[in-house]
Amino acid sequence: MGRCYVVVFLVALYCVFGLLEASSGDADPVYRACVEQCKKTGCVGDKCFQHCNFSSDGNPIDGPWYLQEPLYVQWKQWDCQSDCSYHCMLSREEERQKLGHKPAKYHGKWPFKRIYGIQEPVSVALSALNLAVQFHGWVSFFILVNYKLPFRPNKKTYYEFSGLWHIYSIFAMNAWFWNAVYHSRDVDLIEKLDYSSAVALLGYSLFLAIVRVFNMRLEAARVMVAAPISAFVTTHILYLNFYQFDYGLNTKVCVAMGALQIILWATWALITRHPSRVKVWVVVLGGALAMLLEIYDFPPYWGLIDSHAIWHAITIPLTYLWWSFVRDDSEFRTSILIKKTK
Ligand SMILES: [Zn+2]
């Protein structure tokens, strides 16, 4: 079963590299011209946006910082850009639909309908739920290792991976936080923060997967794993933020790092005699299913629910189960280590 799933997964992985080359709406010159025009005039067609009146006192928008307007005005600038992109996207999609074209993606996202100014309300709500489940999982783990399980004579936990899981929770909560913000507003800076946080989380969880699967307890061995991964992830994040924001490349990097850790955990779960290996199987299968949803990405139903939103819904129970595995793992390792010392 596990081997079959790995094959399915590899086939899907192969497909993703072909499918992701699909054209994106934000590269469309008509759309680009519309956004540029709108940022100057504050209007798309006969719709005008109040956020775009940011240089009312005549200060230049792109002059040196001491001549620029205060931060809240810059926020308005961001809002202006967001309103412009949104309405240019709607008008462009309307035109494209008339010409019989399928919906295109803009800045890596499908054309969604906004509700109360929130761009993807379903994904925002689900990201917030993911964040909450992540927080709950971490708190319950923290309480378990620090208050319920016995300590070593040197006042440290028996479980050798406690610290690594605490750091993992910070990466995960940070990523879900920026994901929720990103789904609510289409702003360049937030988009970069979201993508960077996701890459950082994937990189860290890959490191954690290697360290836990191979049961690395020596600091030196862990550093040997951490160094190349953090160098790679840092380079990739710098490249995205300061050189070129390449969605296709980023997806390949994320899928590769995600696939690698899924394969690691899957193989481990097949070999190990760990009492909670079933939980790992479920999370691995669910994680692969979630990745397939990202690969066979479909446009939103009713302008609201797309494959990404469904993926966020799947990750909620998976996150719960994952932390449950982490708690089991800490209890299991602790009991083994106590038996050894007796
Ligand atoms: Zn998301």
UniProtKB/TrEMBL annotation:
Predominant localisation class: membrane
One BP annotation, GO: GPI anchor biosynthetic process
GO cellular component, one term: Golgi membrane
Subcellular location as annotated: Endomembrane system; Golgi apparatus membrane
Extent of the signal sequence: 1-22
Protein known as: Post-GPI attachment to proteins factor 3
Alphabetized UniProt keyword annotations: Golgi apparatus, GPI-anchor biosynthesis, Membrane, Signal, Transmembrane, Transmembrane helix
Transmembrane segments: 124-145, 157-177, 197-214, 221-243, 249-271, 278-296, 308-326
General function of this protein: Involved in the lipid remodeling steps of GPI-anchor maturation.
